Amino acid sequence: MAKAIMIQGTGSGAGKSAIVAGLCRIFRDMGIKVAPFKSQNMALNSFITKEGGEIGRAQAFQAEAAGLEPCNDMNPVLLKATGEAGCQVILNGKVHATMKAHEYYAIKDKVWQEITTAYDRLSKEYDLIIIEGAGSPAEINLQEEEVVNMRVARYADAPVILVGDIDRGGVFAQFYGTVELLKNPPLEKGDIGGFCDADYIKAFIVNKFRGDINILRPGLRMIEDKTGKPVIGTLYYQNHMGLDEEDGLSIEKSARFNQAGHKDLRIVVLRLKYISNFTDFAPFLYEPDVDIRYSLWEEDISSADLIIVPGSKNTVSDLMLLRESGIEDCVKAAVRKGTALIGVCGGYQMIGKKIFDPHNVESSMREVEGMGFLDTVTTFDRTKTTCQVKAVMSSGSGVKSDKNILKGYEIHMGNTTGDVGLFSLKRFSKNSAPQPPTPNPLFDGSVKGNVWGTYIHGIFDNDEFRTSVINSLRGRKGLPPRKVEVDYQSKREEAINRWADTLQNSIDICFILRQVGMEYCMKM
Fold it and tell me: From the candidates 24, 87, 345, 387, which is the catalytic residue?
């Protein structure tokens, strides 16, 4: 069975996901067979594994940092907020149900079984598991219900490194308060007498520090004196690391990274209330001639060269908000004057003629008028399509593209019919084997004039295709086309390596190795 180390935070957004990714790369480069694990994730950014399962995007990125193909076991429970209906609960990659909090807690034994089974499978395959917690372990009202922090540490016998976000203020109170609140938790039957959850915390990491480290040092010594636990590293604030982000809190930070200097083109992604998989558009951040921003401002929409309606976890609700706020009218006005429009997944559903929901999957509305840009109709059903795909542009689509095969993945509930045929698809299931052939060719996407849509997530990760989209926008403005200038996968690798170097130079990696019984420490 694998050794384990756990990264917990004093609260959400402390930087746990990025630190786990960095450690995965550091230990991989040391020759350690390492894998990430997060028992329960609540996020609208998700990824589809080769098994056809849905996991958190952060765990897929951490797997990439570890040099692994993401798998369902790395995130056995994913919760996707859907609004008033509660959360869609995904167990072992597949939808279980949409549930309110009390309904979810009622199945906690089943959830815990899924978590431990997944962890045990993963533990048999690797030497070291780096576990990510969620939120704070010191939510005392949830200690009997939680399945993601100290209960996991106890099960995996994992030493815990606690990360605090000093940029928000009060980091020493967060460290001290967390330790104190964990001194008398309800322990699992069979735990060693006198050993409490606070004892699992072995050290602290201060994250997002700005300023003079000499001013901070007295506080570091005092917190060690008060808790008996060392601070093993201080990480300076990073404006944008080029890493996949887990939730919408980071949207403005990512967009600011891209906005320096003059840009030939402006892409505006509508910042929906339930926006999902906004990392679909991260590749544009690296394009030298593109200013990309997430916005609902009329000024941004009217000045855009391309408007993107992104994925949504509640398509109908977000469509109604766009309609009621007048944003839909702004988009229609922009499209009438020639602005290009793309809809992805939920956005693709919104820009068709109608949405039918006969089983009330998303809302109490059985029928909703779409924006009407495409001659398509979407019907929601109870079955969720989750698979990796390869796609080829159909001839005569009207969208400029090369003939390379495009890679991506689908995550959607419902089917879209009508004038569909922008892409021909092959869906892939476990072990990357094609699914049984369908009687007719499988098509996705629709195009009409300066508007097109697709269900394919990750489509802009394909460098040639992304460049063809940019060149079509450049052509509309009378600008010359350009060649592919950005290798997105290389940029991702550079970002991971750069972050791993920063992490390795800022925290005591040898301390972590000693905690998991790996006494050697390679030269840093």
Answer: 345
